[in-house]
Amino acid sequence: MKGLIFFTLFSLPLLAKAQNRVDFGQYFEDQTLRIDYYHTGDSKTEEITLDRMYKQGSWAGNPDFCLQPFELGQYKVNVYDIATNRLIYSKGYSSIFAEYQTIDAAIRGNRRTYHESVVIPCPKRPFILVIEKRDRYNLLSPVYTQHVDPADYHIINEKSIRKNDLIIPVTSHGNPHKHVDLVILAEGYKADELEKFRNDLKYFTGLFFSVEPYKSTADLFNINGIFRASEESGTDEPRQGFYRNTSLGSSFNTFDLDRYCLAEDNRSIRDAAANVPYDAILIMVNLDRYGGGGIYNWQTVFATGSPWRDYVFLHEFGHAFAGLADEYFASPVAYVDFYTAGVEPLEPNITALLDTTQVKWKNYLSPGIKVPTEWGKAFYDSLVNRAADIASERDKVLNGMRHTGTITTETEKVRNDYQSRIDQVNAKIDSFFRNHPLKDKVGVFEGANYMSKGMYRPTLMSLMHKFGEDGLSYDIVNEKVILSTIEYYTGN
C-alpha cells in the first residue's frame, strides 16, 4: 500500500505564507499558560487527567506562527476559541509515555503514569483544549478535551517559581518572540559545583555555535542557564546500583537501556525552566559517562563528561528540537513494532521508500546516485555485531560483579578493558566510513531508526547516526530541517 503523505519541514517557507494566519493580539495575552496533567496507560489504553494550570511569564513563541506549519510528534495540542469556533493554536510534541507504550512492559499490560505538560500562549477568552494522538497510520484523533476559562481563579498565577534558582545568561540577542529561546538546566550539581556548571555551560554553548547550522544563525538564539542545586552530584544509574538525590529526577536505564537517560520530574523541570522564556529545554547532567536522550518538543538530556559528550549533546538536540529520527540501526532499543509496514514515517530524515520517485530529500540527491544506494552494509553489519557481542559479554560480567559486591575500582577496570576492545572495533568502523567513496554523497542508504531493513537515511554518516574523525556534521538534509525549525521560531 502507498504511504500516507504529509507536508515535510522542507516546505516550511511555502506553508508559512499559505497558512491561515491567526491574529495573536486578538486572541492571546503575551503570557504563558502551562497545563499539567497525568498520562496513564499501557500499550492499548491511555487516560489523561488534569492536574493543575499555571499562568507564567512572557510567551516565548513566534506570534506569526500560532499554527505549527508541519506535522511532527506523536501528539498534537490544539486550542479552539469558543466564541468563533476557530483553531487559534497548534503544536506537535512527543512524550516519554508514547515511548513507553511501545516496549514489552506496556504490551504485557503494565500500566504506568507520567506527569506531563502542554505550554501554550494564554488565550484572552474561554477556549477548548484538545490533545490529539497519532495512530499506527499517523492519523490524529482526540484523546483529551477540556474547557478552560483563563479567568478561572483556580489557575495558579505565581510571580516567582523558586527564589534561589540562579539565572545565568549565556547569549541574548533580543525579543524572545523573534528568537529561539533555549534554557539549559543544571542536574546533579551540588551547591558548591556552581563554577563547574558555569564551565560546562560555556563549553557546550561554545560547541553548539561551532557546528552548522547553529554557527551561521547564532544571532537568532537566546540561551540561559538555570542553576538549581542538587543534594548529590550525578544522576541515578540503576544498573550499577547507584542512586543520587538530584533536583530534576533524571536517571539512566530508561526502559532498561543502560545508556538512555531521561528526566521524569516534569513539575520540577517546568518550574525551573519557567524562570525565563523558553522554546526548548535542555538538561545538563553532571556525570562522566556516555548517555542522554531527546524527546521532540520536550527535553534534551546529555551527560557532560564522556569522550562522546559532543556527539550526544548535538544528536539528542536534533531529536528534541527538529524532530529528527535516529539514522543508526544496530544499537539495542526497547521498542517493539515502532513503525507500521507500508506507512511513511513522519520524520523528515528517514523514509520507508514506498515510492522511489518521491524521496523526501530528492532535491538534495547527489547527481547520478542510485535509489536505493548500495553502500557495503553487510561488511558494516559484521563489525557492529562484533562490537555488540563484546558489549553483551561485558554486561554479563559487570552484572555478576555487582551481585557479588565487587568494589567499584575493580568494576571500572573491567568496564574500561571491555571498552578498549569495543573501541578497536569502532576504529575499524570509523575507517570504513572515513575512506568510503560515498561518504560525501546524498543518497538513500538502507538502515535507519533501529531498522536494518526497509528504512533508509540520506547519508552514510551524520550526527543523527554517529560521527567519525572527520568531525561533527548533521549533513545537508538535516541542516535544512533544522533551519526550517529555526525559521518557525524566529520568522527568519
List keywords for this structure.
492 residues, alpha+beta, Immunoglobulin-like, Collagenase (Catalytic Domain), 3 domains, six-stranded mixed sheet, four-stranded antiparallel sheet, 17 strands, disordered N terminus
- Treating each run of at least 4 consecutive H or I residues as one helix, how many helices? 10
CATH superfamily of the largest domain: Collagenase (Catalytic Domain)
* Rg for CA atoms: 22 Å
- CA(first)-CA(last) distance: 38 Å
By secondary-structure content and strand pairing, the structural class works out as: alpha+beta
Mean pLDDT over the full residue set:
91
The count of domains is: 3
Order of helices and strands: HHEEEEHHEEEEEHEEEHEEEHHHEEH
- Shape, please? globular
- Determine the CATH topology of the largest domain: Collagenase (Catalytic Domain)
Total count of strands: 17
